[in-house]
Amino acid sequence: MLKNMRHKHEFRGNTSKGLNSLPQEVRNSIFGIEMGMSLYVIQTIVQAKTSKSSKLCTSKSHKIKNSLTGIELGRSLVFSTNIPLEFCQNPRSFSLLNHSKLCFPQRFIENSQSGYKKIQLLNLKLARKVCTKAALSEITNERKYPKVGAPSTGPISANQLIQVVETAAKTGAEVVMDAVNKPRNITYKGLTDLVTDTDKMSEAAILEVVRRNFGDHLILGEEGGIIGDTLSDYLWCIDPLDGTTNFAHGYPSFAVSVGVLFRGNPAAAAVVEFVGGPMAWNTRTFTAIAGGGAFCNGQKIHASQTDRVEHSLLVTGFGYEHDDPWATNIELFKEFTDVSRGVRRLGAAAVDMCHVALGIVEAYWEYRLKPWDMAAGVLIVEEAGGAVSCMDGGKFCVFDRSVLVSNGVLHAKLLERIAPATEKLKSKGIDFSLWYKPENYRTDL
């Protein structure tokens, strides 16, 4: 690649205008190479100071390493922004970063800015035409470099994040769809909590998508536990088959659920729900991005506007342990059955929440859920105009032990009816504090 960078090539006339006429992927790759060059300058200066030499070290291996890194970053930028990068006439200016809404963490931006300053101080001639030639050569030859995953810290563009989340969920759903009409190999995690080979294969397929795109993000999977960097700002909560018992019996209420948290707050979500039934299986996909609304199969959805409990259809769930929370929820089930149009128990938390977001039921509640049960669904409900809280009315986070989601209009009325039961459980010593948070995982909560 260095040979290509020395090759004579130039644009006639205005350099900036010439660059802006190039395809976006070329321009992004050009920028990537320049970022790699700035990192090279930083590294060589450090080396020079260490060796007490006044001359820059010019290790060819470092040039190659950092330039390759540069073009990999450039190629990854093609997938991380839909906004063409803007170039100014000064080939060493860093102002273009302010226009491109890149997803790199602040520490990387600061290092790159420092690199450009060093370039200017040393009067190094990194003409943009050199970078252009290298990028054109790389793309024309279609050389394959490993795709660089987004960094662990700092914001990632909404478009990039939701694309990966939806792809991951649909990839897992393909595994489930392939198995849905086939015999199941069932094992048990407890007396009643079953798991199939499909759970495991779906999670493996989802993990492959996530790790390929975001190699150092933290992942919490129902079957695989914690994987990745616990210092990452991002936590992926994966339920590869929510409603395994329904799946095992061919009952159409199960889904693949993928939610991503940014410092503890839901950032993006996708739930692929299986509908129909044996010999007529189909799916519908729910997605949401924080601040961007909720969608079902690409169409925007909204929670219902029903404002009376007696006109509402409700959903709940029961854990596998027949303990005090289970018994208390049975009482709530009876109470709400008497005062509403009915209470359903479908057996898949992510599906129940999506039904609230879709407006076909008004609310859902349950004790003792896990983060992978809730991370995707709660964001979809909120973005559909609904409300989310703990069952005691407290502010919700996905590490809590209980959840109430509703259309928003009924939320206060439902909490009023649920409060006595929740207080009764607290008086018995039932813990409603955080259930689980990965060690060292940073949150803004």
From TrEMBL:
DNA-binding in keyword set: no
Enzyme class: hydrolase
Protein name per the record: inositol-phosphate phosphatase
UniProt: Mg(2+) binding residues: E222, D239, L241, D242, D373
Biological process per Gene Ontology, one example term: signal transduction
High-level lineage: Eukaryota, Viridiplantae, Streptophyta, Embryophyta, Tracheophyta
Species the sequence originates in: Populus tomentosa (Chinese white poplar)
Gene Ontology terms, MF aspect: inositol monophosphate 1-phosphatase activity; metal ion binding
CDD domains to which the protein is assigned, alphabetical: IMPase
